Amino acid sequence: MTTKEAILAFSQSEKIKSGIIWVTQALGVLSGLPEKNRKSAERIAHVFIGLMLGDVHLAVKVTADPTWRDVEKNIDLALVMLDSGVSQEAGYHLTRALSHVTDIGQRSMNELRDRGLL
Length: 118
Hints:
The chain contains four helices and no strands. It has one domain (3-114): Up-down Bundle (Four Helix Bundle (Hemerythrin (Met), subunit A)). The longest helix is centred in the N-terminal third of the chain and has 28 residues, at 3-30. The mean pLDDT is 91. The protein is elongated. By secondary structure, it is mostly helical. The protein has helices spanning 3-30, 35-62, 67-83, 87-114.
């Protein structure tokens, strides 16, 4: 991993990690909403997950870490769960994505620390 890739991977990991945590919390609130409000909230969550997925696609392009593909896969699965009307299941896949993103961020931070940049 080059220094540039490590910096970009760390930056993207922090941004995406925040997004995953935020969306997971929002999906938790969905289960308590009345049915008439739930569909609108699911559409909003879908938009935010899509935006987050765009950041993952960027990370795939600008870093050499293949783990981003696992993140992408899990976020895609979360979208499938949301679109299928089982938003509570999306949290499982987002948690798996969060684990991968945390690993990427840790590896990137270690790389930067080993190079004396942190």
